[in-house]
Amino acid sequence: MAEEAGPGQWRDRALGFGAALAxxxxxxxxxxxxxxxxxxxxxxxLLGAILRLIGIQVAYAGVMLCAFCxxxxxxxxxxxxxxxxxxxxxxxxxxxxxxxxxxxAPATVPITAGHGVLRILAVKPLLWLDPDAxxxxxxxxxxxxxxxxxxxxxxxxxxxxxxxxxxxxTWLPMRIGRSGRQVDGSFSVAEGQVTAVVYRPSSLPELPxxxxxxxxxVEGDLSLSxxxxxxxxxxxxxxxxxxxxx
Length: 246
Description:
Elements: H1 7-40, H2 47-75, H3 77-84, E1 85-86, H4 93-104, E2 115-122, E3 141-144, E4 147-150, E5 157-162, E6 164-171, E7 183-189, E8 194-200, E9 210-213, H5 214-219, E10 221-222, H6 224-245
Parallel strand pairs: 2-8
Antiparallel strand pairs: 1-10, 2-5, 3-4, 3-6, 6-7, 8-9
């Protein structure tokens, strides 16, 4: 039998519907205001057209965000994640198990009061597409809260960090002395715990690569194409229902 929704689930669904209504109201009013203002200022060179374009973009963003809130509240977070979060094809079940094991391994550095550990999981590219820029001896450079760490290799590397939000930047040093494209991000480090971050550098110096937590690597990113198709389907169904009862 299907498990009945508890009070917490109904509360979350109500919050989702409330958020959808709030988004619809705010974005709808903002979009209409910009469209009317654009029409009013149509005689001003480019200004009217720019305002109308912004109004259309606000309307599109509002529809997508409204659909997002409705779908999360209707489907639940878990089912929504299975349907709309898409992860990289490189994250196979075996890779997922390896990342999870590296994340859960004990810290290799002492953890003092008020500190946690930021674990860098650097993934070496299988092939250097620009061998003149990088070589087999290339290892990442990581900056955590303005302190630079040159990694000795590609094994997991633990860095003590103050508990809270830390700023991380990383890149690959090039053979000619310059640095490849930098990728950065903000991550939350819990006191006494390990926060694992996966760095996937690009094998080309012109591209920055990616930097994300293990959880995001495993779960994936929101597929805007899937959300757009489902949103269009919902709008179409709503239009058909409206025609049927009008």
